Amino acid sequence: MNKLLLPQDIVGGSFWLISVAMIGAAIFFFLERGRLSSRWATVMNLVGVIALMSSIHYFYAKNLWVLNGQAPIALRYIDWLLTFPLTILTFYVMLNSVTDIKRGMFWRLLVGIVGWLYIIGELYMGDTGRKNASCGNESVQMAFFANRLIITIGFSIYHIGYFIEHLAGGANINSLNVIYNLADFLNKIIFGMIIYSAAIQDTRKGT
Amino acid sequence: MNKLLLPQDIVGGSFWLISVAMIGAAIFFFLERGRLSSRWATVMNLVGVIALMSSIHYFYAKNLWVLNGQAPIALRYIDWLLTFPLTILTFYVMLNSVTDIKRGMFWRLLVGIVGWLYIIGELYMGDTGRKNASCGNESVQMAFFANRLIITIGFSIYHIGYFIEHLAGGANINSLNVIYNLADFLNKIIFGMIIYSAAIQDTRKGT
Amino acid sequence: MNKLLLPQDIVGGSFWLISVAMIGAAIFFFLERGRLSSRWATVMNLVGVIALMSSIHYFYAKNLWVLNGQAPIALRYIDWLLTFPLTILTFYVMLNSVTDIKRGMFWRLLVGIVGWLYIIGELYMGDTGRKNASCGNESVQMAFFANRLIITIGFSIYHIGYFIEHLAGGANINSLNVIYNLADFLNKIIFGMIIYSAAIQDTRKGT
Amino acid sequence: MNKLLLPQDIVGGSFWLISVAMIGAAIFFFLERGRLSSRWATVMNLVGVIALMSSIHYFYAKNLWVLNGQAPIALRYIDWLLTFPLTILTFYVMLNSVTDIKRGMFWRLLVGIVGWLYIIGELYMGDTGRKNASCGNESVQMAFFANRLIITIGFSIYHIGYFIEHLAGGANINSLNVIYNLADFLNKIIFGMIIYSAAIQDTRKGT
Amino acid sequence: MNKLLLPQDIVGGSFWLISVAMIGAAIFFFLERGRLSSRWATVMNLVGVIALMSSIHYFYAKNLWVLNGQAPIALRYIDWLLTFPLTILTFYVMLNSVTDIKRGMFWRLLVGIVGWLYIIGELYMGDTGRKNASCGNESVQMAFFANRLIITIGFSIYHIGYFIEHLAGGANINSLNVIYNLADFLNKIIFGMIIYSAAIQDTRKGT
Q1: ipTM of this complex
Q2: Residue C38 neighbours by CB distance under 10 Å
Q3: From the CB of residue E175, how many other CB atoms can be counted at a distance below 10 Å?
Q4: How high is the pLDDT of residue C46?
C-alpha cells in the first residue's frame, strides 16, 4: 500500500485510475437513482453494484501490482465471473421493465455469455433485438443500441486480449493489462453512463 | 492481503468470489428494499444483514487462506452460529407478515436448527407448511416452496461436508472448502434472491 | 489480523462472534427505524449507535486477543464508559416519548449508574417504575418490564465478573472474558431487540 | 494498531474514548437530522461533519500514541484549523436560519477566531448577541446561551493548554493531552448535543 | 500510516488537512443535496463525487509522504485525469439544468480541457458565457461568475506549478506540493461551496 507509484508506470496508474473511477461511478449511480423514474431503479442499482464490486477487485489488483509488479490475472477472472452475468441481467431487466419479455430469454442470454458471438447475435438479431425494436420507448432503444455497440466492441477486447495472452505468445503482459482495464472501463462505467443518460431522458419525458 | 492469489487456486478464488458476491448481494437487497411493498421490508433487511455479516467472515477467511493456506474452520462455525438462526428468523418473518402464525413455532424452528432433519420435517409437514399452504398469497408460497428446497439441499451440503470432515477421514480439505463455499452461496445469496423475486411479484400485484 | 483463529479458542471466537453480531444489529436497527412509528426513532438510533460503537471496540479486542492472547481490559472500560450512560439514556428517552417524565429523573438514573443497586431500585420501585405502570402504553410497558429484567441480570454479570476479577483472585481470565462478552451481548443486542419488538407492536397498533 | 492499550494509560484511553464517541455522535446527528424541523438540517449536518472529521484525527492520534507514546500535536493543529471555522459557521447558520443576519458578521466571526477574546466579545455583546436576544425563538436563544458558555469555557481550555505548553515550560505533556481531549469533547460533542436538544424542542413546538 | 507527522512538516500537514476536508466536503454536499431544489441534485452529486474521489488520492498521498518523504506526482496526474472532466461536466450540467444548451458545447468544453486557455476563452466569451448571460436565473449566474473566476485562478495555479516543475528547474518540490494542494482546495472544495450557496439561494426563491 505504501510503495511509491511511479508516474511512468502506465499499468499501475491505469489500475489506480479505474479503481477510483469505479467507486465514483457506483456512488453516482446510487445517488442519482432516486431522481429517476421508478422503473429504472433496479437497472441503476445493478449498474452501481457492478461498479462497486469491480472497484474492490481493482483496489486489490492495484496493491498487488505496486508491491509485486505482477498481473493479478486470478482477480480478473473472479471479477468477470461476477460481473458478466450481472451485465447481462442488467440488459434483461432494462428491457423487461418496458416490455413483456419471455423468462426463457434471460437464460439464453446467460448461457450465451459462454459463447460471446452468441450474445452479439442475440442482441443484433434475436428476440431481445426484436422486442427492443417494438418496445416503443425511445430512451430504452437508444440505450439498447448504444450498449449493444459497447458490448460488441468492449467484449471483443477481452477476446482479443485472451487471444494475445494464450495463443500469440502473450508478448507483452503490460499492454495486455492496459487493454483489459480499458475494456472494463468501457463495459462497466461507460455502459452504466449510457443507461443513466437514457434513464434521465425517459424520466424527463414522463414528468 | 498483499500476497498473490494464483489463478489455479480454486479454493482461494472461491473465497474471493463469495466475499465480493456477499457484499454486492447485501447492497442490492438494501437498495431494492425501498421499492418493495412495505411488508417485505424486514425480510429484505434480514437477508441483507445475513449477506453482510457473511461477507466480513469471507474477507477474513480469504486473507487467512492466501497468507497461510489453511482452512479457517473457526470462522465458518462463528458465521453459521450467527447466520443460521437469522435464516430461520427470515423464514418466520416472511410467513408472519402474511399469516397469523403462532409465536411458539418460531422457537420450534430455532430449536429445530440443532436437529436439521427436524427443520426439513417442520418445513414440509409441520405448522409452517400448513400455514403456508393456506396463506393464499402466491408470491409467499412460491418463495416458501423454492427456499424449502434450497434449505433441504443447501443445508444437507453442510451435513455431507461435516460427515466427510469428521467421519470419512477429511480426505481433502480443499474440496471441502469449495463445497462449504458453494453451500453458503446457495443458502445466503440464492436464498435471498428467491425471496427478492417473490417480493417483486407480490409488490407488482399490489400496485 | 492475519493470525489463525483456532476453533478451540472459545474466547477469541466469542470476540469475533460479538463484533460481527454488533455490526449486524446496528445496521438492522438503523434500517428498521424508518418503518416504525416516529416516536420510536430516537430510541432505535440510540440502540443502533450503542451497538455500532461497541462493534468498533470488539473488532480491536478480537485483533489484540488473536495477536497477543491478552484480555484487552482497557477497551472494556472505555466501552462501558461510553455505552452505559447511553443505555440509561435510551431507557429515559423511551419512557419520555410516551409519558411526561421529570427531567431530574434522567440525572438520577445517570448518577445511579455508579451505584448499580440504585438503578435496580429505581427501575423496580422509583418514579420510573411508577410512571411506566401508569403510562397506559402496553408496548412500552412490555419493553420496560423485559429490559428491567435484562439490566438486573445483565448488569449483575458485570458485578460478578468484577468481583471474581478483583476479589476472588481473578482465577481464570478466559472464562471472565466469555462472561463479559455474554453480558455485553445481553445488555446491548438483546436489550435492543426487546425495544425493537415493542416498537413493532406499538407501530402495528397505531396503523 | 495491534499494540496493547494498558488500563492505566489515561491519555491513550481518552484518545480511544473520544474517537469512538465522535463517530457515535456524528452518526447520531446524521440520523436524527431527518426528524427535526427542516431549518435545523444544515446546522445538524455541520455539527455531524465536525464530529466525523474530528473522529478521523482522533483515530490516527490514538494509533500514534499507542505505537510511539508521543503526543501528535500536528494532528491537533490540523483538526483545529478545519473544525474551528466550521464551529463558527454552525453558530452563524443557526442564527441565520431564524433571523436576517448581516453577511458581514460571518466574516467578523471567522476573523474573530484568530483573536479568541474577540469571539467571546462578539457573542456576548456584539451584533450576534443582540440579534439573538431579539430573534424571539426560545429554542435558538437557549442553544445560543448554552453554547456561548461552552465556547467561553471550552475555548479557554485551549488557551490555558497553549499557555502551559509554550510559556509555563510544558511541564506535563500527558495532562496537556487529556486537557485538550476534554476541550474537544466539550466543544464538539456537548456543543452538538445542546444544538440538538434545542432543535428537538423547536421541532416539537412546530408540530 | 503510523509514522509521526511533525508539526513543522507543512507539506504533510497540508496533505492531511485536505484529505479530511475533502471527505467532510463530500459528506456535506451529499447530505445537503436533499434540501435543495431538485434541479441542483445532479450538480451536487457531481461536486460530492469529485471531492470523494480526491479524498482517496489525498489519503494515499499523505501516507506516501509521511513514509517516504516523496511527492506522489503520479497520484496527482491520476486525480486530475479523473476530476478535471467531471469539473467541466459539473459546469455543463449546472447550465443545462436551467437553459437549453447545445450538446456539442459539452464536447468543446471537454476538449477544451487540454488547452486550458481555450476553457477560459469559452467561459468568458463563448456560447457557455452567452447562454449564461441570458439564462435569467440569478443564482446560476452568480455561481457561474464566481466559478469562472475560480477556474481562471485555480487552473492557472496548475499551469504555473507545471511551468516551475518542468521548465524552471523544479526548484523546490515542497512548495510545489503546497501550491498544488492549494489549487485542489480551490478548484474542488471552494468550487463546490460556491455552487452550493447558489443552489441554496435558488431553492429559497423557489419556495
Answers
A1: 0.75
A2: 13
A3: 13
A4: 94
Cβ contact, residue pair D1, E2, below 8 Å: yes
C-alpha cell at A194: 449510457
For the segment B84-93, what is each residue's pLDDT rounded down to a tens digit?
888 878 877 8
Contacts 24+ apart (CB under 8 A), B166-170: none
Per-residue pLDDT, C24: 95
Q: Residue B62: its chain A contacts at CB < 8 A?
A: none
Cell numbers linked to E158 = 496548475
CB atoms within 10 A of CB E102: 13
| pLDDT higher at C190 or B73 | C190
Q: Residues with Cβ < 8 Å from B52, sequence gap 6 or more?
A: B22, B23, B26, C23, C24, C27
Q: What is the DSSP string of A86-121?
A: HHHHHHHHHHHTTS---HHHHHHHHHHTTSHHHHHH
Query: Would the CA dihedral through D121, D127, D133, D136 be positive or negative?
Result: negative
CA angle B185, B186, B190 (to 5 degrees): 95
CA distance A45 to A31: 10
Nearest to B198 by CA among B24, B37, B21: B37
HSE of A181, CA atoms in CB hemisphere, 13 A = 27
Which residue, A56, A83, A35, A67, is CA-closest to A204? Answer: A35
B/D touch flag: 3 or more CB pairs below 8 Å:
no
pLDDT tens over chain D, length 207 residues: 445 666 667 788 888 899 999 999 999 999 998 888 888 888 899 999 999 999 999 998 888 887 777 766 778 878 888 888 888 788 778 777 655 555 565 555 555 655 555 555 555 555 555 666 666 666 767 676 666 666 666 666 766 666 666 655 555 667 777 777 887 888 888 888 888 887 887 787 765
What's B135's DSSP letter? Answer: S
Q: Count of CB atoms within 10 A of residue E8's CB? A: 8
What does the pLDDT look like over A28-75, one tens digit per residue?
A: 999 998 888 888 888 899 999 999 999 999 998 888 887 777 766 778
Q: Which residues of D touch E (CB under 8 A)?
A: 1, 30, 33, 38, 41-42, 45-46, 48-49, 52-53, 56-57, 60, 63-64, 67-68, 70, 72-75, 77-78, 81-82, 86
* Whether B74 and C13 lie within 8 Å, measured CB to CB: yes
Rounded to a whole number of angstroms, the distance between the first and last alpha carbons of chain C is 48
D64: which chain E residues are within 8 Å (Cβ-Cβ)?
Answer: 2, 4
Asked if B186 and B154 count as a contact pair (C-beta separation under 8 A), the reply is yes
Neighbours of chain D (3+ CB pairs under 8 A): C, E
- Identity of residue C25: A
C-alpha span between A7 and A178 (Å, rounded): 15
Distance between CA A5 and CA E73 in Å, rounded? 9
- How far C22 CA lies from chain B's nearest CA (Å)? 10
**Is A88 within 8 Å of A148 (Cβ atoms)?**
no
Between the alpha carbon of residue C71 and those of residues C5, C11, D7, E17, the distances in Å are 15, 9, 11, 36
Among positive and negative, which fits the CA dihedral B25, B30, B31, B35?
positive
Q: Torsion over CA of B192, B194, B199 and B205, rounded to 10 degrees?
A: 170
**Any idea which residue has 413455532 for its cell?**
B105
Cell matching residue D187: 466543544
Residues in chain C: 207
Contacts of A17 in chain E (CB under 8 A): 78, 81-82
Instruction: Name the residue among E137, A85, D43 with its Cα closest to residue B24.
Output: A85
**Rounded average pLDDT over E184-206:** 81
User: Which carries the bigger pLDDT value, residue C7 or residue E120?
Assistant: C7
Comparing alpha-carbon positions, the chain C residue that sits nearest to B81 is C17
Average pLDDT of chain B, as a whole number: 74
A24, closest residue in chain E (CA to CA): E49
